[in-house]
Design the sequence.
């Protein structure tokens, strides 16, 4: 490892612009003649649109255009789609309801976009939006997924009878039922996984510019995957063919999944730019973000886990209802199925698993992947069950887990996944040691002397990330491949540009990716630039989500580096009159191993471009590309231990200590990896203790601002103790597993296990807010 | 319309703006100082913190007209030349930022905290004082480290100067 190479905790290159205010986010972009869009949104959760009167708005100062869904349809703009086809267990396809970028005929949730107003200033657009008159006839509303499945529930989409999108299953039903019937002990729970709002700090935004002379569009947008945006906008929404559409995602201020999807606003801004003849910018305000960003989680599950007389798990039976909101967002169908139920074996040998999942429409915001996406829901089920079962069986939660750990790899679970490597006991041991598990009784007694209720909880998570082999996901219904691309360009002076289809929205790719190059070619980090986020520069890519930029994105870079290295060594061998197999690259030189013969790296690059003296038949230049398609998912895993103190007077839970022991395989930059874990844990603590997304019975979002939605703040969190164990991932060339989501996946059950331990109850529904804890304590008394 | 005259990052500026224009929009749109970010509508997130007459202010809570006659420092004016402010440096050293969106407001608030406490800062105080700044990426762990480290450096320098 060099000072800046693989494994070095290098501070980030990109920080200079972010710490000086020189970052460039979508709302910072200004183009000549730009005008501003404001959306008129439905104030009702479910209503028929009886009429739209735009005449008053059209006469307001500065207004350039007031456009409706009818006009959008006239121009042939398509409906939004869900890109992952899931079939019900009877073989019928999922019931995808129509989602027009501007509502036509009906609105289905509060925030549904109906009309767009384009005006000279943002304020004028908002003023004019207020003047648009829409005549609604309100319809009955359903917001709860369980209620939506009941007879007589209001119907959200005509083509989804009973609001059912699909009724899907995985695993062996009969074998699982038999395991439960023959069990010595069965632990049953009903578990709600609370709906969350991702809340990237940068609100979504779009700036669309139509160039009439070229018949070409440019879209600047807040996207985790600009190439996927371009593909979907052109192939499904009929905005423009791909060669007539450039999508640029400049600096992106967080995403956590919410900026994967293509939303109505980007489509409408592109279309409105052509229709009105001016560049159109839209920036969400925070309430719009709350109302319309894809939400996460929102499951209700009945679950049973069966044990034999030796406390070995025999089977797991899961029945989940998942709320997908009013429309199917881009990858919504995959989240409660292949990203969830395939992880239900956790870290354990479970001979029989069966999961049934029903997804339903409700009059709420669409739900899609949010940090972890399905895997937090699976982990929460398993780890709450393991804790509860341990208490019921009278064994320690650690021992129950140890007894059931998978210890041999590869391990084929009953639910598709084949785990390639891991050492779950190592993570557990490391976490218990760091948390001083054995010293807990003394700390609990000390807390009790101060009138506080102290509890401890653990969680052993596994996730599948680095998604994933394209053929595998294709067979499961995905509409896209999940490979990644890279191009490595060595300039004539030896500096390097790497073009990647991954796109950072805070993950530090400009540093980590450059470390790979620095390590390989022995050149300083500042001689390497990472180019991403622009479909005109990078040919194609699948973007950043599912903790895939390391395992898949960097593997693509490594593959391209292999090709460049091979060619560079051929050139160096030719220049040094040596055998190419004897060339090593170190200290900024290509050297003949074991001799003092060497040539500086830049001279090798220069030779490639002068082409005066290349090996016979070699093309000039030093530039190679690669597409990398992984052979398997990767399986990060770890153990989290949390200690809390509850104040029985107020019900407030304080997180005293949080220990994380993660196995992410090999690590390129420990500083960045730790940061990812910190952020994930904070979101998990948010889910467990603070955050909830509350709709009232009429479908109004009660938590639509930071005054109502409890975002974790600095004083709500402790400093974290983060460490790693390492089993290299055998499924990719770098041995990387991925670290972006683990914190959010592993932490909520650790928290709730600790809270229920502290207050002495079997279960409490997330978030364990002060009020809910206080009420639980007092109901118990 | 309102006539606004103020000093921003040491430069005198004058504009005629709508009376309802917020200082945050004024800085971003009239002066193209886009380092000041807007992350909410309710003055909760703190992405827009600037210094007005030396004190941290959420620039979305103030009309541009109200700022007339004041001296405003934005993130772009925090350091001059090649050297970064110790707080900017500490955020880099300790990986106190990820997506960068909250960072500019976070740094401006942190400088104010350090100035107000004059060296007597501990972790609990930093966490309590950052109540008005929301970060979704870092879990605050490294932000708190950065602020404490910058505080130590700035306090040390103050002592050395004395």
Sequence:
């Amino acid at each position: 490892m060099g000072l800046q190479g693989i494994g070095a905790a290098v501070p980030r290159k990109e920080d200079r612009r972010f710490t000086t205010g020189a970052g460039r986010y979508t709302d910072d972009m200004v183009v000549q003649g730009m005008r501003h869009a404001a959306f008129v949104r439905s104030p009702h959760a479910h209503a028929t649109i009886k009429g739209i009167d735009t005449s008053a708005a059209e006469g307001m100062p500065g207004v350039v255009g007031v456009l409706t869904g009818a006009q959008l349809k006239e121009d042939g703009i398509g409906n939004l789609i869900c890109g992952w086809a899931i079939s019900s267990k009877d073989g019928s396809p999922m019931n995808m309801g129509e989602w027009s970028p501007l509502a036509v005929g009906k609105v289905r949730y509060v925030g549904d976009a109906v009309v767009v107003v384009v005006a000279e200033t943002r304020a004028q657009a908002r003023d004019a939006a207020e003047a648009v008159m829409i005549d609604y006839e309100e319809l009955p509303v359903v917001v709860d997924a369980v209620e939506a499945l009941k007879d007589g529930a209001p119907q959200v989409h005509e083509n989804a009878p009973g609001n059912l999108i699909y009724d899907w299953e995985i695993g062996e039903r009969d074998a699982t039922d038999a395991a439960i019937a023959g069990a010595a002990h069965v632990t049953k729970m009903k578990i709600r996984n609370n709906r969350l709002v991702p809340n990237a700090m940068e609100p979504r935004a779009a700036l669309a510019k139509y160039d009439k002379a070229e018949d070409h569009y440019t879209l600047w947008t807040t996207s985790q995957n600009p190439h996927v945006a371009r593909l979907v906008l052109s192939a499904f929404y009929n905005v423009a063919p791909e060669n007539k559409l450039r999508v640029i995602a400049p600096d992106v201020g967080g995403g956590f999944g919410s900026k994967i999807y293509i939303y109505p606003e980007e489509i409408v801004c592109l279309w409105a730019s052509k229709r009105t003849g001016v560049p159109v910018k839209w920036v969400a305000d925070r309430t719009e973000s709350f109302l319309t960003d894809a939400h996460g989680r929102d499951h209700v599950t009945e679950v049973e886990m069966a044990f034999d007389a030796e406390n070995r798990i025999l089977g797991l039976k899961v029945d989940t209802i998942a709320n997908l909101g009013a429309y199917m967002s881009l990858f919504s169908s995959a989240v409660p199925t292949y990203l969830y139920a395939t992880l239900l074996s956790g870290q354990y040998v479970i001979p029989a698993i069966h999961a049934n999942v029903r997804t339903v429409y409700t009059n709420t915001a669409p739900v899609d992947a949010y940090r972890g996406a399905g895997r937090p829901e699976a982990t929460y089920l398993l780890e709450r069950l393991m804790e509860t079962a341990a208490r019921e069986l009278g064994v320690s939660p650690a021992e129950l887990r140890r007894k059931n750990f998978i210890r041999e790899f590869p391990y084929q679970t009953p639910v598709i996944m084949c785990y390639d490597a891991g050492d779950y006991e190592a993570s557990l041991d490391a976490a218990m040691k760091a948390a001083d598990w054995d010293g807990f009784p003394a700390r609990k007694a000390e807390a009790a002397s101060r009138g506080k209720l102290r509890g401890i909880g653990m969680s052993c998570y596994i996730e599948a990330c680095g998604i994933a082999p394209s053929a595998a996901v294709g067979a499961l219904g995905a509409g896209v491949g999940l490979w990644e691309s890279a191009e490595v360009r060595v300039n004539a002076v030896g500096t390097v540009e790497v073009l990647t289809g991954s796109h950072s929205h805070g993950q530090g790719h400009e540093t980590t990716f450059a470390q790979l190059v620095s390590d390989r070619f022995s050149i300083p980090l500042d001689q390497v630039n990472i180019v991403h986020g622009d479909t005109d520069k990078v040919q194609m890519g699948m973007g950043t989500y599912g903790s895939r930029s390391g395992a898949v994105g960097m593997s693509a870079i490594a593959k391209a580096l292999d090709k460049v290295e091979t060619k560079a060594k051929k050139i160096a061998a030719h220049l040094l009159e040596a055998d190419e197999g004897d060339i090593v690259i170190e200290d900024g030189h290509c050297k003949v191993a074991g001799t003092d013969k060497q040539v500086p790296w830049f001279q090798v690059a220069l030779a490639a471009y002068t082409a005066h003296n290349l090996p016979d038949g070699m093309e000039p230049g030093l530039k190679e590309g690669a597409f990398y398609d992984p052979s398997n998912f990767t399986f990060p895993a770890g153990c989290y231990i949390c200690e809390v103190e509850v104040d029985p007077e107020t019900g407030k839970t304080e997180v005293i200590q949080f220990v994380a022991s993660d196995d992410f395989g090999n690590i390129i930059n420990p500083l960045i990896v730790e940061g990812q874990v910190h952020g994930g844990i904070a979101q998990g603590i948010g889910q467990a203790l603070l955050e909830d997304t509350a709709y009232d019975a009429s479908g109004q979002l009660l938590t639509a601002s930071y005054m109502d939605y409890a975002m974790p703040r600095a004083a709500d969190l402790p400093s974290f103790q983060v460490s790693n164990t390492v089993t290299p991932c055998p499924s990719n060339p770098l041995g990387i597993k991925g670290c972006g989501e683990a914190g959010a996946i592993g932490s909520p059950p650790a928290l709730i296990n600790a809270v229920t331990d502290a207050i002495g109850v079997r279960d409490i529904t997330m978030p364990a807010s002060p009020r809910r804890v206080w009420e639980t304590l007092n109901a118990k008394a | 319309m309102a006539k606004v005259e103020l000093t921003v990052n040491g430069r005198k500026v004058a504009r005629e703006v709508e009376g309802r224009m917020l200082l945050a929009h004024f800085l971003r749109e009239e002066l193209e100082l886009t380092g000041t970010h807007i992350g909410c509508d309710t003055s909760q997130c703190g992405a827009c913190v600037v210094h007005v007459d030396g004190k941290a202010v959420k620039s979305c809570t103030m009309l541009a007209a109200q700022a007339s006659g004041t001296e405003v420092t934005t993130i772009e004016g925090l350091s001059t030349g090649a050297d970064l402010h110790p707080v900017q440096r500490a955020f880099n050293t300790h990986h106190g930022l990820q997506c960068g969106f909250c960072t500019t407001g976070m740094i401006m608030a942190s400088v104010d905290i350090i100035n107000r406490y004059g060296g007597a800062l501990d972790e609990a105080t930093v966490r309590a004082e950052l109540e008005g700044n929301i970060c979704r990426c870092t879990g605050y762990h490294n932000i708190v480290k950065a602020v404490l480290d910058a505080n130590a450096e700035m306090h040390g320098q103050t002592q050395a100067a004395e």
Q: What stands out?
A: Chain A has three domains: 15-20+483-628, 31-139+203-253+259-292, 299-468+632-780.
